[in-house]
Amino acid sequence: MGLTCQSCGKALLNDKFNIKLGNHEAFVIALAGNPNVGKSTVFNALTGLKQHTGNWPGKTVTNARGHYTHKDKEFMLVDLPGTYSLLANSVEEQVARDFICFGKPNATVVVVDATCLERNLNLVLQVMELTDHVVLCVNLMDEARRKGISVDLDTLQKSLGIPVVGTTARSGEGLTNLMDEVHDISLGLKITSPKNINYSKDIEEEIKGLVPKLENIFGNTLNPRWVALRLLEGDQTLLDSIHQFLYTEIYSNKDTEVACFYE
Amino acid sequence: MKNSTLSQDPIPLSNITVGTTVQVLDLKTTGLSRRRMLDLGIVPGTIINVLRKSPLGDPIAYNIRGATIALRKEESSQILVNPI
Amino acid sequence: MSSQTSNPYEILVDIQNEISNENQCKFRDSMVKSIYTQAEAIAEKVVTKSHTKKYDWDHKLDDILTSKFTGYPIMFFLLGLVFWITVTGANVPSSMLADFLFGIESKLTTLFMSVNTPQWLHGILILGMYRTLGWVISVMLPPMAIFFPLFTLLEDLGYLPRVAFNLDKLFKKAGAHGKQSLTMSMGFGCNAAGIIACRIIDSPRERLIAMLTNNFVPCNGRFPTLIAISTVFVGGAVASHYSTIIASFFVCTLVLLGIFMTLIISWGLSKTLLKGVPSSFTLELPPYRKPQFLKILYHSLIDRTIFVLGRAIVVAAPAGLITWILANVFIEDLSILSHMAAFLQPLAHLIGMDGFILMAFILGLPANEIVLPILIMSYMSEGAMLELDSLQAMGDLFIANGWTWLTALNVMIFSLLHFPCATTLWTIKKECGSSKWTLFAAIMPTLIAFITCFFITQLVHIIR
């Protein structure tokens, strides 16, 4: 069962996200973050020159992938578009959300700017609602120090319930730590317990009513609480994506693949 | 929240002079543009600092939750605020 | 697989439809607020700011760079400075490269002679292909290797969003998207790259406007043309001490004209073919960052310079070959090239140029950087380029072929405004998916270039 599930997921990656795993043993890691937080610096620092760029199928949004090896394991890093949120107002947000939601990466790294943590935590909390396998990378620590801002990473880790690593990607500070955490999360050596967001009473009531119905439909393919929230706020794009990713046959169509591959 | 701020009439953010700090009361927009505002962290209660005008007077840059964001008059006039 | 009575997707749609729009909106506001409240609470717990705040450079810099009084002059000055450094810095390496490459040429010629290569083969390969290549490399490589890192430096510092901030109102007035100033800036490097950058604009209408007008800022393929002609004809007109400064200043003015055209045409399009109101726009002004010099050098040299140069070489080699053939195959008394130039002559005359220049622009469609090499080759009586080791020699050649300052001006303006290169057109087709708009992207700028040059020429003739 594990095997079929695995191959199914990889086929999905290939067909619907235009991501080809050269090595089928590689772990898929998504890299999310707000714009201007040095996400691409983290991406470049980790993958070096082993990069490819293409497009997300059917979207004019650039999709960059890169490889790195850590502790004899191979990781494929997928650079998601920089977004403030995952609530899918723009194509970029949809791409990022769909990849985390349906692409089921082995881990998602959220890069945030240490100098404006509060704004960035918005995205972190949203990613945590979607998946348990999250590592927080607090980047630009040098700039924070220069500006006299200090971030208590331990308390942050406890408050969020996910691993937190401080980095300065341009100098390489903290990157080994980051790779360690990603390794542990991907292999299931470390279990996270992301903190849930508490919503207002009426919303929580509605969620309670919806979750059993959704559990019936999705089993454990999608997080029912999260889907319930999206239904409540009337997010049409998620329904479209559910239709596209879960209930549309996977075709291995070479032609369309070539057509949407832009090198 | 102070009562005195509530008694004042809300002012559109576009009318606030540079250097002032304000608190968001309400958003007048709906639909997509409202979502965009929310994503930027502009919700009732958010503190916004008016930073600077561009050379031609529009857009205006604001400090919103630690980031400098420039908004055109069309958007900022839809955000009702109270100076604090 | 499972044969459920109802599609799960439809169940979800039903559930969602049960919730009223009003409630959805209310829920959404409340959710976003809850998330932010929690983010605030956590941030407050973990972030401490020491209030021995150092000098706030970001604010001070923004005060100067986006000020009502100094914002625009500084933009103009920085642009001019970049050009000036490019022009001054490229001179010496350019002539060194030219000496080196043309030195190899004479060795190659000796080699060809010693093995008794037929005259035509030597002509095609050495006088046609190699010379064009040598010209493209020696004229283009040094300015690119200086211009791209400088431009990337401004990008890396975080200056470009400030440019967008300063110019936004103009773009709004033109009915265009604020991000168009960013895609326009990208166009300085390469218009095709600028077209791809237009993806950041969500609204299809505004994206199309940005794509159709990107061509009005000179790309790196056209800068060498502008800089070379400006150095000879504008800089050459004043004392040598000031010539590079005057030449850079003039190129700057041309760029301003290009930006002006971008705005006017965007305005025209949004009032006619692409009607609509500007969509909402938010722009983040990120903190200034210390640039990473090594990374800038690497990325601008490898990703940009080598890429653009490689493309130019790929195009220049066959173009040089074809031009040589056109210039050396005679029908009756005249070469094919001369026939074609003679055919274009009346039209070219109206816009203050000659048939050879117009011909060079047309043959330069694959890549703008080969326009000057083709023109030089066409002017040579024997149909191949002389050993042009300096810009002055090029200027003398042009003057000998009847150029005046008016010709130079028209060539520069035509180069600035005319149809985009084939790569750019291909990119436009790819990005917008419409052959009709791609055709429009080729014809519209060409018409505008014609009209502008026509008016300038006729006006000068009347005044005289």
Automatic annotation (TrEMBL), chain A:
Q: Which residues cross the membrane?
A: none
Q: Name one GO cellular component term.
A: plasma membrane
Ranges where the FeoB-type G domain occurs: 26-188
A single GO molecular-function term is: GTP binding
Which residues lie in coiled coils? none
Q: What is this protein called?
A: Ferrous iron transport protein B
Automatic annotation (TrEMBL), chain B:
SUPFAM superfamilies recorded: C-terminal domain of transcriptional repressors
Keywords assigned by UniProt, alphabetized = Iron
Which PANTHER family does this one have? FE(2+) TRANSPORT PROTEIN A
Cite the GO molecular-function annotations of the record. transition metal ion binding
Occurrences of domain Ferrous iron transporter FeoA-like (ranges): 11-83
Do you know which InterPro entries this protein is assigned to? Fe-transptr_FeoA-like, FeoA, FeoA_core_dom, Transcriptional_repressor_C
Q: What is this protein called in UniProt?
A: Ferrous iron transport protein A
Annotated Pfam families: FeoA
TrEMBL record, chain C:
- Which InterPro entries does the protein's record reference? Fe2_transport_prot_B_C, FeoB_GTPase, Gate_dom
Q: Which residues form the Nucleoside transporter/FeoB GTPase Gate domain?
A: 139-229, 311-434
Key word Nuclease present: no
Under Pfam families, the record lists: FeoB_C, Gate
Q: Which GO terms describe its cellular component?
A: plasma membrane
Q: What are the TM regions of this chain, as residue ranges?
A: 69-90, 110-128, 135-154, 221-239, 245-269, 305-327, 347-376, 397-419, 439-463
What name goes with this protein? Ferrous iron transport protein B
Ferrous iron transport protein B C-terminal domain location: 253-300
This protein's superkingdom?
Bacteria
PANTHER family cross-referenced by the UniProt entry: FERROUS IRON TRANSPORT PROTEIN B (PTHR43185:SF2)
